[in-house]
Prior knowledge:
The structure holds three protein chains of three kinds. Chain A is an alpha+beta fold.
Amino acid sequence: MANVPDNLHYSKDHEWVRVEGDTAVIGITDHAQEQLGDVVYVELPKVGDEFTGNDSFGSVESVKAVSEIFTPIAGKISETNDSLNDEPEKVNKDPYGDGWMIKMTMKNPGEVDSLLTAAEYEDFTKAEE
Amino acid sequence: MITKVTNHPSQNEQLIFERSQEGRAGYSLPPLDVEETSLDEIIPPALQREDDLAGMPEVTEVDVVRHFTRISTWNYSIDLGMYPLGSCTMKYNSRLNEKVARIAGFANLHPLAPEAEAQGALEVIYELQQHLAEITGLPGISLQPAAGAHGEMTGIMIIRAFIDARDGKEASAQRRTMLIPDSAHGTNPASAHLSGFTVKTIKSTAEGLTDLDHLRELCGHGDVAGLMLTNPNTLGLFEKNIQQICRIVHDAGGLVYMDGANMNALVGVARPGDMGVDVIHLNLHKTFSTPHGGGGPGSGPCCCTRELEPFLPVPRIVRTDAGTMDSKSQIPNFKLDFAYPQSIGRVKAFYGNYGMILRALAYTLTHGYDGLREATEAAVLNARYIAHGLISDYDKPFAGDPMHEVVFTDKRQARKGAHTLDIAKRLIDYGFHPMTIYFPLIVSGAMLIEPTESVGRQELDQFIEAMRSIAKEAVDDPELVLNAPHTTRIGRLDEAAAARKPVLRWKPKQAAGAA
Amino acid sequence: MLQQVGVASIENLFESIPENLRLRDRLNVPAAMSELELLNRFDELAARNQAARRISFLGGGAYSHYIPTIVDHLISRSEFFTAYTPYQPEISQGTLQAIFEFQTLVCQLTGMDIANASMYDGSTAMAEAVLMAERVTKRSKVIVSSAIHPQYLEVAHTYVQHAGIELEHAKTDDQAGQTLLDSIDDNTAAVIVQSPNFFGCIENVTTLAEKAHANGALLVVVVTEAMSFGLLKSPGACGADIVVAEGQSFGVPVSFGGPYVGLFATREKYARQIPGRLVGEAYDNQGRRGFVLTLATREQHIRREKATSNICTNEGLIALAATVYLETMGRRGVQEAAQQCAQKAHYAARQIAKLKGFSLPYSAPFFNEFVVKAPVAAADLLAQLANDQGIDGGIALSRFDSNRPNDFLVCVTETNTRDQIDALVAGLAALVQNRS
C-alpha cells in the first residue's frame, strides 16, 4: 500500500507539499512513483523561475513512461534538488524525503489549504483505480 | 515439450574495438595511379584531420566476417520463425526481391543521372504507383517518403495545405485540431504536431470501435482539420461505420487520413478510397514484404484523392507517351515533373527509398491479382484461428471478430502475478519472438498478435500450444514465467540503470565487461 | 481451419466489412509472374538505365565508392536483414551491438559525443537538426547557407513550414565559393553550413562556429560526402554542436537515390533532445554486458506529440552496411580511400583547368568535388559526352540554377582510374574543339 504521510498537503496530480515557513517543499507521492516505475531522469526548472498554480514545472521519466509534474500552488523556485541528476532513484526510495524536487517561496501561503489532506488524497487514489 | 528454434553457438564476442590490433587491415585498394601532390598543397594543414582516426578499428577481413557472423547468431529473425507482432506484419521477405534490388542496372544507377538514361528506373516507380493506386483506390501517389512516419507527416501536411488553399490562411488558422483515436500508434500525434496541429483524442466504444457520438461532438466546433484513423484499428477490428465516420468529418469541413500500416487485412478485399478516405500512407516494409532489416529501411508511400493530388511532394514521376527512345515502337517516356506550384515541397532528397520500391514491385508482380487477395484471406484466417485457439486461456477484451490481428490481455494471468511482459519473455523460451506488448495503450496489459499469411498451420498450432503452456505455468510454476527468458545468451537487462547513466558509445580504455 | 474458427467460407471472414465496400472484381494488376518471368522483366527494365553502365563522375549528394565484397554478404545474413527492430533485447543482441558500434564509429568520424542509430538520409537529418536547434535554444530563426545541397534546403523548408521557424539563406562568396555569415543575431537558433559544400568547397567551419557561439547560436555542420571525414578536420574538432551527414559513401550503392542512411551526432549535453533511436550499454542480473534501446522517452511511442521526432523505422540495415564497411576499411582504409579521392580529384581539376575555355571558378580548397566553367552550355556538353564517350562527366548546375548554364559539378572517387579521368579530359577537349 502506498504511503500517505499525514502532515503533508496533496494535489490531484499526485504531488505533495510540505510547508516550512514561507517555503513549500514539493515532490511526487509514493503512489505516483509506484505507478511510474524506476525513475531514470528528472527534469527540473531553474532557481528563480516563477509559476502560477497548476503549471507544469518539469517531468519525471521512467524507462517506459514520462509524466509532467505540476506545481499545486503559485510561487518562485528557491532551490532545486540537483542530486536527482545523479541519483534519480531517490524519488523511488524516499519520495517524501531525499526525493524532494523543488522548494518554492509561496506567493499565497494560504493556498495550501485548498489542497487535499492525506485522507482526501488516499480516497482520491482509491477512486482512481 | 518445449520446442525451441534459437540457439547461441557464440556466447562471447566483444565489440570490434576490443578486438582491434594496430597494423591489421581488412581492405585492399589499388595503388594511386595519378601524380601524387603533397597533401598540404591540396588541403591546407589547418583543414586536415589531426587525430589519425584514433580509436577506429584495425582488423582483418576474416575478423570482420567472424565478428558479424557470430553476433548475427544472437538475433531472432523471420527466416528462423514466426514473429506474432501485431501491427508489424512480419511476413516472409522474398529472396527473389533481394536479387532484383541488386541488379547492377538499378544498384549502380546514380539518382542525378539524366532522365533519358534512367528510363527503366523511372518506369519501376511509375508502375508501382499505378498498382498502389489500384490497391488503395486513391489515384494520387508519391513514393518519396522513406518510412511510415514520414508518409504520415506527408499526408498530414497535404491536409494542411489543402485547407489553407480552400479556406484561406485566416480561416484555416481556426482549423487546427486533428482528431486521433486513443488506440492510435504514437507516430500519429507526433506527425500531426509537425504540421502545426493540436491533437484531440476520440474515445472508443466498449466494442472497441470509434465512438460516433463523441466524433460528432468533437466535429461540432468548426475547428477540425481532420481525423487520423487506422482501419482495421489497432485492436484488429474493422471500423464498420467507416463510411459514416468519413461523412461526419467531411460534413464538418475536415479530411480523413488513414494510417495504412494495417493494409494486410484489406488488399484485394476492400479499398480505403471507396470508404471515403482522402489520404493514406502505406508501409512497404509491412504489407508489401520489404525486409525490416533490424529497424529499416522502410518506405512510406502517400496516396490521395484527385482533389489532393496537387499538394503531393515533388518531383512526381509521370508518363508521357511521346516516345523519344524509339519512336517506331512508341516506348513511353517517363519524366520527373516539378510543375506543381501547390506541392507541399520535397520531403526527402531524390525519389524515395528506391531499393524498397523495387522490392515492393517485385512482391506485387510475384503475387498478382490472385496472390494478393489470397495473402489477405490467409492473414485474416490465421489471426482468427489464433484468436479461437487462445480464447480458453487468455482474456479477449473485445467480442468482435478480429481481422488480421487480435488483442488479448494478461487479466487472468495477472491474478497469479504473471504479467504481459513476463508472458512475452517466456514465449522466447518456446522459440518465438514475443507479440506486440502494451500496445494499443487503451488495453491494459495488451498483447497484440498478428501471424500474417506467412505461417502454416503447424506453426500456428505450435504457437497456440506454447501460449497455453505458459498460461498453465503462470498458475503452476510462476517463477518460470516471471524470470524468463531462461534460454537466451543474456537475461533481462537493467534498462533503468542504462537510462540513468547512458553509455551510448565505446571509448578507449573502457572496461570490457563482456561475459 | 475454416471449420475450426466457425465460418463457412473465406467470404465470411470479411463480414464486418460492409457489403458495398467489398470488392467483387479482382484487382486490376497483372497476373502473378513466375521467378523466371519476373527476373526477365526486371533485367529488361535495368537494361534501359544506360547511366548505370557509364563511367561516372557524378556526385552531388550520392557517391560511387568501392564497396568491399563482404559488406553485401554480411548484411544478407537472414539474422540481420529479416530481423525486426530490437525491442526485445534478449533476442536482438546482434542488431543492438552492431548499432552500438555504428554509433561509436559515427562519433569517431564526426568528432562528437553521441550519435543516434540513424535517420532516413542526410536531407531529413538536416531538417531534424533545424527542429532540434529550435528546441534547445528556444529561438526561431535558423540561418542556412545557400551553398547547402539544394534538395536538402528544399526538405528543410518543407519541415519548417508549419513549425514557426524562419529559415534565412546566407549568401556565398562568388570568388571563394564559401558561405558569408552577415546577419546572425541573438534570435538565431543555429547556423547551418555544409562542408565540403554543394560546390565542393571546404568551409571555414571553425570561424563560423566562433561566430555562431558568440551569438548564443548552435553550429550545425552538414556533410554529404562522408568520405571527407577520412581526411578533413572533424566538424566536432571545429566546434560544431550538431553534425548531420549522408552515410551512403560508406558501403551503400547509389541505387537511384535510396535507401541511404542519415547520420546524426551531437554533444553529450543534448542527449535528451536528440531525435531517433539510441542504443546503450546495459547489464543483466548476472553481470553480463548487453545492449538495449534506451532513452526511449524522447520518442513517439511514449511522448507522442511531444516527441523529439516522429521517426520510428529508420535505416537499420543500411547503417549495418556502413558499419561493416567502416570496420572492413578500418582506420587505415578510410584514410587511404579519402586521400585517393582527393589526389585523383585534384589531378582531374588540374587537367581540366588546362583546357582552353575551361576554368575553375572557385578558389576555396576542395576535397573530391569541384565546379568547372565550360565555354559552352554544360547540359548539352555533358549529354554529348555521355552519348559519344560513354562518360557521365558531371552534373550540370543549370539543373538547379538556370543562371549557371555553363557550370557543372565534377566528382572523383577512388574508383575512377587515371585512364577514365584522362578520357574525361580528352572527351571534353574534343567536343569543345569540334564546336569552335
